[in-house]
Design brief:
GO terms for molecular function: DNA binding; DNA-binding transcription factor activity. This protein is α/β, with parallel strands linked by helices. Helix content is about 45%, strand content about 20%. It is built from eleven helices and eleven strands. It is globular and about 75 Å long.
């Protein structure tokens, strides 16, 4: 049994497709097919059900996948640890950043960190908080800066800052003269929200449910500037963090009568090996 066979098996298991797995791994399709066949012959079990158009894991394959992922994760952790010992001046951190947090919080963190540690590379993955949390739980990211108001039991978290979600209105909206707005008064408005993989959107949807109405969502976007621009043009209303909303001169931001607060922090998987570079980043954030 070779390490290469396990890597091929893991990728096919994730994608349920040998052709796509070959493309992702930059090898030929026959290479993967032969490697998996040899693996099945050696184990004496069938790992994949090939009777349908999309191949799927058999019961034996599902059990074997759990073992393989643990083996490959351990090997990856060992290699990272050895790299740290070999050269503490080099390293990379794969970090997930949601769009709204990336627009106001991360640039300053990135600039200050690079000033102190110019040899360390930050590889940025831009996804919503929910998607980043899932990637962290699967061990596919080193760190993530996410909303930690409802932390996962699989993750360690380090608080960074808190914020309030404000209602964003066009300047000519009838509610702009209110000191605060009850959420139920937004029934019937056109909502412009962040995409579905964000906790920010989930919070707004929960408020709608709490106030017994289904929002009329006319657009979902991961681009903060797009959302602000559409609100300014009177296309709809939205909800943004206070530090972002108050920077928009052509958008009126108001608090909700029942304020919505969130906490933002750094997160990482509890049982995942942290490279020296990741440990340095965590210590840097602790001292912000």
């Amino acid at each position: 049994m070779e390490l290469r066979q396990l890597e091929y098996f893991q990728m096919v298991s994730r994608l349920n497709n040998i052709t796509r797995a070959a493309e992702r791994l930059h090898v030929t399709q026959p290479s993967i097919t032969i490697a998996i066949q040899k693996l099945e012959d050696e184990l004496g079990v069938t790992l994949f059900d090939r009777s349908q158009k999309q191949i799927t894991l058999t019961a034996e394959g599902q059990v074997f996948l759990q073992r393989v992922e643990n083996i490959l994760r351990s090997i990856q952790d060992a290699m990272l640890e050895m790299n740290d010992y070999r050269d503490l001046q080099k390293g990379s951190i794969k970090i997930g950043i949601p769009p709204m947090i990336g627009s106001f919080l991360f640039p300053e963190i990135f600039a200050n960190f690079k000033t102190l540690y110019p040899h360390l590379e930050l590889c940025i993955i831009e996804e919503g908080s929910i998607a980043i949390r899932k990637l962290l739980e699967k061990g596919e990211l080193d760190l993530g800066i996410v909303i930690i108001s409802h932390p996962s039991p699989l993750l360690e978290t380090l608080p960074i800052t808190k914020g309030e979600i404000l209602l964003c209105l066009p300047p000519n909206h009838p509610l702009v003269h209110c000191s605060s707005v009850p959420f139920f008064q937004l029934r019937g408005e056109s909502f412009i929200l962040l995409k579905e993989d964000t906790y920010h959107r989930q919070i707004i949807m929960e408020e709608c449910s709490k106030n017994k109405f289904t929002p009329n969502i006319i657009l979902s976007s991961s681009q903060i500037e797009t959302i602000r621009g559409l609100v300014a043009k009177g296309v709809g209303i939205s909800f943004l963090l206070d530090v972002i909303a108050r920077k928009s001169a052509d958008v009126i931001s108001l608090p909700l009568s029942e304020p919505l607060f969130i906490e933002i922090g750094l997160a990482w998987k509890k049982d995942k090996y942290l490279s020296k570079a990741s440990q340095v980043f965590i210590e840097f954030v602790k001292n912000l």
